[in-house]
Fold this sequence. Notes:
- InterPro entries: Chitinase_II/V-like_cat, Chitinase_insertion_sf, GH, GH18_Domain-Containing, Glyco_hydro18_cat, Glyco_hydro_18_chit_AS.
- Residues 1-18 form the signal peptide.
- The chain has 9 helices and 13 strands.
- It has helices spanning 2-41, 90-98, 118-134, 153-172, 196-202, 229-241, 300-309, 344-356, 377-394; strands at 60-64, 83-85, 102-106, 139-142, 177-183, 205-209, 249-254, 256-261, 295-299, 317-319, 324-330, 336-340, 361-365.
- The chain has an 8-stranded parallel barrel with strand order 1-2-3-4-5-6-7-13, surrounded by 6 helices.
- Helix 3 (118-134) packs parallel to helix 4 and helix 4 runs parallel beside helix 5.
- It is globular.
Amino acid sequence: MLILAFACLLYLVSLTHSIASNTVSLSQIQASFEGEDIKRHCPCASKSLCKPVQRHVDREVFGFLPPNPRKSWESFDFSQLSTIAWTTDPALMCYAHSMGARVTADGRQGLAEVLTDASKRSQWVFDAVQQAESLHLDGINFDFEDPTEPGSSLALGYSLTVKHAAEVFHRHIPGSQVSVDVPWSPYDVDGRNYDWAGLAAAADLLFVMSYDMQSQIYGRCIAAANSPAALVEKGLRQWLDLGVPRSKIVLGLPWYGYDYECQPDSTGRPMQPSDTVCHLAHVPFQGAPCSDAAGSQKGYLEIMEILRSGRNTTHMQMDSTEMSPFFNYEAKDGSIHQIWFDNPESLSVKYQMASDLNLRGVGIWNLDTLDYESSDPVIHHQTSEMWEALKIFSGRS
């Protein structure tokens, strides 16, 4: 009986050793398979370019590229640009990786539908990581902007989703980056009352969207700056006062502006070509009686085209309070419009602000608003100036 028990013990020890050996072997097989998988599906000239970017930069330059951009990304200044968000173009991924820049996924798809259900949140995160791995991306950017009340299940579900995503992305994609877009101020902008402390703790970066800042106008319903410098600084200081580390804050700025059709004033007097005050149609938004929804967004390229065409009825002027340029022009239907936008001069003020506050980075919405392909020296110079202004913050040459 004793001999039988001893024999059984030896068998169990042998079996345990065999299982352990097989585990190591399976791990090695899996590692080998993953290596082959990257080699098989990597679209780049070198499979090393499909590996996650490990580069750390003290001063982040974070740019968005919306769906269906023009194919001019090789002209981006990658000596400054460190992250591109929202693209799945494999050619761009390969090129960006060759330049040491991260490419991160668009985390908007299907997000709103899962935030209040734990099992759906987990599946969403799993799918997001799988997609990022299959496309050789370097992380994910969250941009959820639905209104919600403070402490709501939606707000909590959002911060839990970002927390879980950060844990899983960091584990499966070494060096990956999880960023969250937040409004210019943490205080009820457009009804967005999220768990800011939870989001800031979970994410690697908070991209502060310091634009569309006329989304809720409670005073005079007139055209004004998209990104007024004093209000930008106030919002940043509010984020810092909440305890968000400077090392996580990216100041997001616009490479676009708003085109407003000017309305008659309260006496019925029409807008004159040289007037400086442009009254807006009253378009309510999130409880405010007036908003920038009265206008339409125009990229820097389009705005410069209007100025070059000579359709402007005033020279470009810089508002000394809001530190933003504006001008009037006559539309094809004869109506007078006013455009408020940002240019190298106004952006430089805010890049310097980010530097003075020792923030982690500056960001751009969006990279596709410039003309990178024109042979016209004037247009080429205008594009170069926009990138040159970034050096105030990045310090790169």
